[in-house]
Amino acid sequence: MRRNFWLAMVTASMIAVSIAIFGVFLLLSVNVGQVMQNIAGNVEIAVFLEDRADTNSVLSAIKGLSGVAEYTFVSREQGLLDFGQTLGEKDLFLVLAGENNPLPNMFRVRTLDATLVPAMADALRKVRGVEAVDYGEDLVAQLLNMTRWLNSMFLAISLFLGLGAMLLIVTIIRLSVMARQEEIGVMKYLGASNWYIRLPFILEGATMGLLGSLIATLSLGAVYFRLTSNLQNGVLPFLFRPVTEVAALWPIFAFLLLLGFFLGIIGSLLSVRKYLREVRRTA
């Protein structure tokens, strides 16, 4: 590597660029996933009770269902006040208080996962004393379809970027192998085994891969945390809160670090293997 310093630096730089592009996509997918999770976490099931329903009986039924994250009882009076407050005037419907109140008592139920909402709503409809259940069926269906579509898209793009990074690294390391084709040929003709020839290239590939991924990880981490720090100081946190928890981010950066290391090894193996085949055919 010292004798071919510039070639090694170019190889490590290209690996760094490939890993950085892949890392940007992973960070983007994590943030998009959090946005979808936040939206799904705000989906509520509104359980409207009959006028003579036993509230405690309905409450016991709700507690007995699996997948319930939380529930809140909203009385007719509180529902009237909340309805007026959403329209900008808390006392707007006070004239309808008492016997004139058209709203029923209700429970607001949240599930542990948005995918549980349809089944939970069907179970709640069968509870005695429940008059109606509403959860925005069309909205939840669209949300689940969008989540599945995004997961499939992110998986496909991840595979595509990973394959592209692999091909790029293999091509670059092959240039390094070709630069030493004379000494490889001499070693081969003198009886050196394939693994004796491969080992230096594997170590070189691992070193360049680790160096490239280290550059990419440190640069990407510095840029990401600087960007999220600037975003959190503005108005954007009210609309979007980027992922900054160390527990959620360190697996991504650790994966990128190891990815460059193993891609360097695999790229070296594939490149040297192909060249050794060519030497064998020539011989």
What would you say about this model in short?
The chain has eight helices and four strands.
How are the SSEs placed, and which strands pair?
Elements: H1 5-41, E1 45-49, H2 55-63, E2 68-74, H3 76-86, E3 106-111, H4 117-125, E4 130-134, H5 137-179, H6 181-189, H7 194-232, H8 246-282
Antiparallel strand pairs: 1-3, 1-4, 2-3
Task: Count every helix, treating DSSP H or I runs of 4 or more residues as helices.
Answer: 8
Largest sheet: 4 strands, antiparallel
The total of beta strands comes to: 4
The helix content, as a percent range, equals 55-70%
Rg for CA atoms: 30 Å
Beta strand %: 5-15%
Number of domains: 2
Low-confidence stretches: none
Spatial strand sequence of the major β-sheet = 2-3-1-4
> Could you tell me the mean pLDDT?
77
The rough form would be described as elongated
Structure description:
- The radius of gyration is 30 Å and the shape is elongated.
- 69% of the residues lie in helices and 8% in strands.
- With 283 residues, it is α+β, with helices and mostly antiparallel strands.
- The longest helix has 43 residues, at 137-179.
- Strands 2-3-1-4 form a four-stranded antiparallel beta sheet.
- The protein has helices at residues 5-41, 55-63, 76-86, 117-125, 137-179, 181-189, 194-232, 246-282; strands at 45-49, 68-74, 106-111, 130-134.
- It folds into two domains: 5-39 and 142-282, no CATH class; 44-135, Alpha-Beta Plaits, CATH 3.30.70.3040.
- It is built from eight helices and four strands, in the order αβαβαβαβαααα.
